[in-house]
Design a protein that fits this description.
This protein is mostly helical and about 80 residues long. The protein is built from two helices and two strands. Strands 1-2 form a two-stranded antiparallel ribbon. The termini are far apart.
Length: about 80
Amino acid sequence: MKLARFRIPLRLFGWKITERNRFRLEITVIVLLKLILLYTAKRLWFSEPVAHHMRVEPQRIEQQFFGPSADKPHSVTGAPS
C-alpha cells in the first residue's frame, strides 16, 4: 500500500512555486543576502576613517611603499675609483 504524498502548491505574489522555481528562489535570496552582508561589511570596516585626525599625507605613503626619493643622489662610500 502506497501512501499518498500531498504537495501543497506554494504561491508567492500570485506565482505558483514549483520545485524548480523554489530552488531558484532560494538561491536568489541567498545571493542577495550575501551581497547585502558584503556591502554592510565594506561600509563598516573599509569606508572613510571615523577619526579625521588620523589621516596620513600621500607623500609619506609613497615614501613607505617606494623607499627614499630618487631625486636625491645616494653617496656610496668605499667604492673603488
